[in-house]
């Protein structure tokens, strides 16, 4: 007899974390935590207290008392808990796009004399668009990888593009459509063997897949915090620069927050010797505090425990989808996938709309994909069961 | 007999607006609204409701239901109420630094064949640093204006730098140190007569000085919202591109939010034909909502009424400072100043620290300046009187 979702939830060591989030009872299932994570109750309280006491009460004094250090302090917290990054290499600020733009320039700059940026055609649009923009501005060439969507960037696919011209390789740790999890250490080694540097986009893995940037000798990384970090719509992103590159990593959005002395208002620009050089303008204080709360929830649960539940949740979803005969795009080997499961259906747009009408929120991706994002801290097995049941029903119409 | 501050407050038609802000009774006077504006009560409620109902309740559906249009919708509101800008020319997103970076590239791009960017040495650091960065990246030359701090950039000073090589001129509407208000229409005309385009930094004027960008045929403008717009620490900034430049205005941070179809996830990048092309990554939703509340307060009061009180408040401060024999840097002609009054004192740092100890918050600026920022919607005459009295006392020690 198959195990019931209630039994699975009963045996789930992380099940209590679901109560730490605001859960809307009007929804049958929220399966889009990989687009926008749920609201942690602690964040709701923290933001209200920040507005009331810090902005309203401390006013400008808040900057010198604590806010000015937040981009690096919370960057360090996120780096330690989520990225395997020692302190002084991670900042929280701006959007993923803006940070990626900065990192691309910085990465190209540490490999002068090389003129190719490598990226795959399956990568997220903002990554592809920004690579084209930066390559064009720097007189570089974009070398396109054309992997299969599901197998995605394997060592063999990457090898076809690497060579003496390789300056920078841009890869997404988890593919935003198929959910395929790339071999971060292995691909990083391959880029290094060719003499290039790598920029990892961790948007779909940060907080849900164990990551060890320092151990893998990753050069640069970027990611958002509104997915599995649960920091809210448009929350600031993170940027990581390996300590060994800091002295040479120059980014062009040289605003006052990137200067060696923020308040000196110097006549001449001197870039900060620390990771603060990746900042530009005044960052959102409330945004960074929401990131901090999200990071603390993850640190409390532990990324390894989160990953274990993620593998089990996705396996459970795949089992239910298989039983209904739906086409699954996501790799079946747990070690090869992140935390979303993607279904291909000829009428995906209509199926997704039908699901939403019935209180199940998935994510539609052009032209024929439905993503089910399973966020281990807030998604229950019962939710997966209920959500997939509605998907199966809508898909059968 | 001199008029008492209580009488002045009694006659103030905007006095009721002070009750619309959270006022910390522990402070004798908050005179730094030009660094960080006070917290509007409506914003406190709006942010709590947003977190609870929109993020917590609508989750990802919020994007399609309303959030995706916010950068332009609130940009239009701000443009109409504060900038004299018709719709479709203003967006809210990113920081001032990031937006200025984008506008500098866009501005340089609409004047191909010209290779000089003009900026004054008195301009705010981030403006100077970014001009240097963009000029370097584009192979352009920075032409430095060296005005007197107080007279600042007059038509005569500007004329020395304009010519056939002038591509872009970057000016701050109100000087962040002296408080000098520049002649925006006249200087804009002069730049145009030379064949260049102008980028106005409105950080210290937006919301407190009447601005008519369309009427003055301004090309590009940028500004923050955490000063007189009262949108909170690190709130997103605005960027304005005149409609006639939109088709040619290209910026390099070509993230997905700048694409013609945000959710098409196209293989090739096509920039949005609208002002959305100035966006990059996912903007902070709560940040934009705080901007909207701040803008609505200003629209309700009216910028002209705010300006009238600003002139009266600064005149009152100058009168009190004069009576104490302190050195005032800010122009005495009301039409030549913004909404802060700056005092020069050999021991400015110690004086400012002493004031803060006694519950009066000014702003210290290297090496010898103390700024008193008077924000008409939340600053009372009584507050000015009490604050200046403490300044005078501390300065006399």
Summed up, what is this model?
By secondary structure, chain A is of the alpha/beta class. Helices cover 38% and strands 14% of the residues of chain A.
Strand and helix map with partners:
The structure is a homodimer of 397-residue chains.
Chain A: H1 5-11, E1 29-30, H2 41-58, H3 61-65, H4 70-83, E2 90-93, H5 96-109, E3 116-120, H6 125-138, E4 141-145, H7 155-159, E5 166-172, H8 184-193, E6 197-201, E7 220-223, E8 237-241, H9 285-301, H10 303-323, E9 327-328, E10 340-344, H11 348-357, E11 360-361, E12 363-365, E13 369-373, H12 381-395
Parallel strand pairs in A: 1-11, 3-4, 3-5, 5-6, 6-7
Antiparallel strand pairs in A: 2-8, 7-8, 9-10, 10-13, 12-13
Subunit structure (chains A, B): Homodimer.
Binding site for pyridoxal 5'-phosphate (chains A, B): 96-97, 124-127, 201, 204, 226, 256, 282
Modified residues (N6-(pyridoxal phosphate)lysine) (chains A, B): 227
Explain the overall architecture.
The structure is a homodimer of 397-residue chains. Chain A is of the alpha/beta class and 397 residues long. Chain A has 2 domains: 5-30 and 302-395, Aspartate Aminotransferase, domain 1, CATH 3.90.1150; 46-299, Type I PLP-dependent aspartate aminotransferase-like (Major domain) (Aspartate Aminotransferase, domain 2, 3-Layer(aba) Sandwich). Chain A has 12 helices and 13 strands. The first copy, chain A, has a 7-stranded mixed sheet with strand order 2-8-7-6-5-3-4, with helices on both faces. In chain A, strands 9-10-13-12 form a 4-stranded antiparallel sheet, covered by helices on one side. A two-stranded parallel ribbon of chain A has the order 1-11. In chain A, helix 2 (41-58) runs antiparallel to helix 9 and helix 4 (70-83) runs parallel beside helix 9 (285-301). The longest helix of chain A is centred in the last third of the chain and has 21 residues, at 303-323. Chain A is globular. The model of chain A has no long low-confidence stretch (mean pLDDT 96). At the A-B interface, helix 2, helix 3, helix 5, helix 6 and helix 9 of A face helix 2, helix 3, helix 5, helix 6 and helix 9 of B.
């Amino acid at each position: 007899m198959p195990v019931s979702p209630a039994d699975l939830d009963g045996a789930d060591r992380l099940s209590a974390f679901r109560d730490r989030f605001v859960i809307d009872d009007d929804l049958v299932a929220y399966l889009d935590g990989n687009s926008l994570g749920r609201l942690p109750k602690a964040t709701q309280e923290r933001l209200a207290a920040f507005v009331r006491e810090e902005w309203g009460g401390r006013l400008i004094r808040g900057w010198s008392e604590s806010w000015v250090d937040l981009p690096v302090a919370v960057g360090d917290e996120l780096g330690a808990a989520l990225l395997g990054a020692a302190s002084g290499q991670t900042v929280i600020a701006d959007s993923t796009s803006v940070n990626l733009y900065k990192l691309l320039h910085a990465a190209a700059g540490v490999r002068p004399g090389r003129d190719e940026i490598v990226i795959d055609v399956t990568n997220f649009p903002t990554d592809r668009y920004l690579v084209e923009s930066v390559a064009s501005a720097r007189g570089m060439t974009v070398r396109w990888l054309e992997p299969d969507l599901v197998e995605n960037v394997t060592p063999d696919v990457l090898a076809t593009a690497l060579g003496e011209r390789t300056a920078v390789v841009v890869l997404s740790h988890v593919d935003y459509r198929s959910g395929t999890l790339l071999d971060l250490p292995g691909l990083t080694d391959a880029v290094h063997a060719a003499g290039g540097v790598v920029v990892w986009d961790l948007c779909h893995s940060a907080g849900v897949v164990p990551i060890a940037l320092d151990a893998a000798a990753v050069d640069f990384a970027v990611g958002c915090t509104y997915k599995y970090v649960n920091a809210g719509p448009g929350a600031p992103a993170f940027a990581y620069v390996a300590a060994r590159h800091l002295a040479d990593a120059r980014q062009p959005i040289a605003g006052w927050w990137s200067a060696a002395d923020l308040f000196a208002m110097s006549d001449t620009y001197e870039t900060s010797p620390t990771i603060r050089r990746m900042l530009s303008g005044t960052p959102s204080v409330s945004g960074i505090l929401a990131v901090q709360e999200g990071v603390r929830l993850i640190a409390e649960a532990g990324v390894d425990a989160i990953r274990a539940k993620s593998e089990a949740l996705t396996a459970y979803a795949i089992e239910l989808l298989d039983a209904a005969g739906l086409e699954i795009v996501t790799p079946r080997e747990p070690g090869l996938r992140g935390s979303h499961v993607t279904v291909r259906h000829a009428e995906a747009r209509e199926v997704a709309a039908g699901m939403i009408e019935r209180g199940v929120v998935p994510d539609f991706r052009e032209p024929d994909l439905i993503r089910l994002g399973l966020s281990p801290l807030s998604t229950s097995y019962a939710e997966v069961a209920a959500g997939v049941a509605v998907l199966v029903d809508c898909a059968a119409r």
